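Quick one, tokens below. Sequence please?
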């Protein structure tokens, strides 16, 4: 899912909450960041990138609500807005080469994953049907390409990309 962080203090807020230097993220790229509790235990691993109104944060849907709740507890003291924008975006993963029609889209964020052997991309694009459930679950979109999530997760493991799920929060 995607959390949008907007407002005049979005960068300051994220800089204080996440593990990496938010100010070092360049437009067109993303950064891995950890969101930790006060003891330093990881609550979530996030992909963060600048957006038109602040920042977008990509994380597993299974921990989005819990992460958003905790972030909002601290965000209410800042001049920011934190929103679940998952329904506003379509998130697709591509293994190998990116389909040519995706290259032509102008309103996408392309996240290139750091695999050494297999090129992989995460494409985040505006959902043309944001009020429908299509953005919430691509499997309901009959035109969406379907793939094997287990294969994607195996490639994550092979590339050394960790994932925090509800069972591993703060371990």
């Amino acid at each position: 899912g995607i959390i949008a962080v907007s407002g005049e203090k979005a960068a300051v807020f994220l800089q204080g909450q996440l593990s990496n230097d938010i100010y070092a993220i360049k437009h067109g790229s993303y950064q891995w960041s950890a969101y930790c509790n006060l003891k330093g235990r990881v609550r979530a691993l996030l992909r963060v990138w600048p957006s038109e109104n602040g920042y977008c944060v990509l994380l597993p849907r299974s921990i989005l609500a819990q992460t958003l709740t905790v972030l909002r507890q601290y965000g209410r003291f800042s001049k920011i807005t934190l929103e679940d924008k998952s329904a506003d975006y379509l998130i697709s993963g591509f293994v190998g080469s990116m389909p040519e029609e995706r290259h032509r889209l102008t309103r996408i964020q392309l996240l290139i994953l750091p695999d050494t052997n297999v090129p992989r991309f995460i494409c985040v694009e505006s959902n043309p049907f944001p009020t429908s459930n299509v953005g919430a679950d691509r499997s309901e979109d009959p035109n969406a390409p379907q793939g094997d999530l287990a294969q994607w997760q195996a490639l994550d493991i092979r590339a050394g990309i960790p994932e925090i799920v509800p069972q591993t929060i703060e371990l």
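The helical segments are 10-17, 61-75, 100-103, 149-159. Residues 61-75 form the longest helix (15 residues).
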